[in-house]
Amino acid sequence: MHPFDRVFEKSARSLAKRTSRRSLLASLGQLLTGAALLPLLPIDRTARAQTSDSPVAKPTADEQNCEYWKYCAIDGFLCACCGGTSTSCPPGTQPSPITWIGTCHNPADGRDYIVSYNDCCGKVSCGDCVCTRNEGEKPMYRLSRNNDVNWCMANSEADYHCSVSIILGVAEK
Ligand code: ABN
Fold first, then answer.
1. 96 lines ligand 1 (CB under 6 A)
2. What are phi and psi of 2, to 5 degrees?
3. Among 53, 109, 115, 163, which residue is least crowded by beta carbons within 10 Å?
4. 119 lines ligand 1 (CB under 6 A)
């Protein structure tokens, strides 16, 4: 027998002697429970809302139009009119990690999409292309369903500048 096989056999036998079937099942159970709980952890949604430090980011005419379908639940200044795009914050601002979420219908493919509206923070209000659509919004007494909130409140620099809209995925019926 090859020396490597001998070492491997010896360690496998010693592990088998030390481990019962019950403890193996318990470890397997822990592993599966841990894996199932992973999606429940809080998610930082800043990853897709990038700071636009690249001078090549150029917004399209759609992105500067408040009637654009993915702005259906927005309340704020469009970052595409403020030096960023609909998905990237203008230079010198940072996306908020907490956001308002809406569901918008895309007429081009007939599907509904979940959209995250991240505020871009760290500069005074942009003031251009104010866009207040508010689809699905509820009054202030249901804070989590209201979009008239400065989501920069959790950033180190809490000044609100403008809002981006990030498509998170297709909404399930
Ligand atoms: N989420 C946009 C916003 C920022 C400040 C105040 C109201 C709304």
1. no
2. -65, 140
3. 109
4. yes
Q: What is the pLDDT of residue 1?
A: 75
- Per 3-state DSSP, the chain is made up of helix, strand and coil in percentages (nearest 5) of 30, 25, 45
Question: What is the 18 CA–ligand 1 centroid distance (Å)?
Answer: 60
Pairwise CA distance, residues 72 & 165, whole Å? 10
76, 38 Cβ separation under 8 angstroms: no
pLDDT of residue 16: 75
Query: Helix, strand or coil for residue 87?
Result: coil
Q: Which two tokens stand for residue 61?
A: 């005419």
CA angle 95/91/151 to nearest 5° reads 20
Q: Is 148 in the pocket of ligand 1 (CB under 6 A)?
A: yes
Give the end-to-end CA distance of the chain in Å, rounded to a whole number: 60
Q: Where are the alpha helices (DSSP H) in 38-164?
A: none
- Active-site annotation, residues: 100, 119
Pocket test for ligand 1, best of 93, 137, 163, 164 (most atoms within 8 A of CB): 163
Pairing of strands 88-89, 50-51: parallel
pLDDT of residue 9: 84
**150 Cβ below 6 A of ligand 1:** yes
Q: What's this model's pTM, rounded to 2 decimal places?
A: 0.70
The residue nearest atom 3 of ligand 1, judged by CA position, is 150
